[in-house]
Amino acid sequence: MSQKEYEAYYVPAESPWPFMGACALFLIAVGAGNLVIELTRDKEGYGGYTLIAGFAALIFMLFGWFRNQIHESMSGLYSAQLGRSYRQGMAWFIFSEVMFFAAFFGALFYARTISVPWLGGSSNNQMTNEVLWPAFQAMWPLVETPGGIKTQAMPWTGLPLYNTIILLVSSVFCHMAHVALEENKRKQILIWLGLTVLAGSVFIFLQIEEYIHAYTDLGLTLASGVYGNTFFLLTGFHGLHVTLGALILLILWFRVLKGHFTPDNHFAFQAGSWYWHFVDVVWVMLFFFVYIL
Predict the structure, then answer these.
(1) Which residue segment(s) compose the domain that 132 sits in?
(2) Residue 1 covered by a domain
(3) Nearest CA to 164 among 283, 291, 278, 289?
(4) In sequence order, what are the beta bridge partners of 265?
(5) Can you list the positions of beta strands (E) in 63-126?
(6) Same domain, 84 and 70
(7) Who contacts 158 (Cβ-Cβ below 8 Å, separation ≥6)?
(8) How far apart are the C-alpha atoms of 192 and 176, rounded to whole Å?
(9) How far is the C-alpha of 279 from the C-alpha of 164, rounded, in Å?
(10) How many domains does the chain have?
(11) How many whole angstroms separate alpha carbon 257 and alpha carbon 238?
């Protein structure tokens, strides 16, 4: 690469958005942690308000940062080298998300294959069952806690199955939008991308309905032992990722409406597409390991 191309590498000015994003994530972490404690102990607090404030700050930060990025891109400030940097950055970001969900799937694996058999009194630990929990039965899902709290497992049929179909279809919609962009068919891009956002919104709505059903009809709550904890952590964090992905695609839809992107220059669209396919794959794994097995 020539010296001139290196000099063309764009370095943006100082920005407040990373700091604001860090503050928003801090509020989300604190709010979510306190909200879980409040729900499990059935007491009131400020966890929910802190969580909402964190999400509001995060959304504001995303819109502000995206606005700056869009202005820089449309002004022709980005070089080919910077484009490669963005691709590498997005790839590492998705890899970090893979590791994030791998930790929760690992916790589920540990609880099911190690902790539950151990409590049931495995061949190497015959006295555990009689001493710690005499009435315990080593089975999954664990629908009864030592405190006597009983619940029901969430079946894979009904809302979970509908949501799986919706996300799989939305992935097809997103791919069709990408194909339309490569063929420069603007109207088709808006249709397919709009359907993707709509499908994501329906998924979120149905997941809220599923949570209401779990709490009111099944007695499945965050206080329902390790099964309830792993169920809500995995599905809840995935729902947050779907929400973020839908917001990203919505912004891309408005950008397409304004005439942004060309068949040769549309990495932002590619990045949003990569992220959406990623959350779809995670849900398929989640549906299999959490709902079916």
Answers:
(1) 80-292
(2) no
(3) 283
(4) 262
(5) none
(6) no
(7) none
(8) 6
(9) 11
(10) 2
(11) 28
Which tens digits make up the pLDDT trace of 174-189?
A: 999 999 999 999 999 9
User: Is 100 contained in some domain?
Assistant: yes
Confidence of residue 143 (pLDDT cuts 50, 70, 90): confident
**How does DSSP classify residue 144?**
B
126, amino acid identity: Q
pTM score over 0.85 = no
CB neighbour list of residue 111: distance below 8 Å, 6 or more residues apart: 142, 226, 230
Q: Are 196 and 245 in contact (CB under 8 A)?
A: no
Single residue among 52, 78, 104 that ends a domain in this structure: 78
Residues 259 and 147 placed together within one structural domain of the fold: yes
Return contacts of 271-276, CB within 8 angstroms, 24+ apart: 271/86, 271/90, 272/245, 272/248, 273/174, 273/175, 273/177, 273/178, 274/90, 274/94, 275/90, 275/94, 275/245, 275/248, 276/170, 276/171, 276/174, 276/196, 276/200, 276/245, 276/248, 276/249
Is the bond into 12 cis (omega within 30 degrees of 0)? Answer: no
Residue in this structure with the two tokens 């691709």, named with its chain if needed:
87
In angstroms, the CA 174 to CA 197 distance is: 9
Condensed to tens digits (0 to 9), the pLDDT of residues 204-247 reads 999 999 999 998 988 888 878 888 888 999 999 999 999 989 98
Residue 154 and residue 189 in one domain: yes
Contact (CB, 8 A) for 59 and 247: yes
CB 150 within 8 A of CB 137: no
Distance CA 73, CA 49 (A): 36
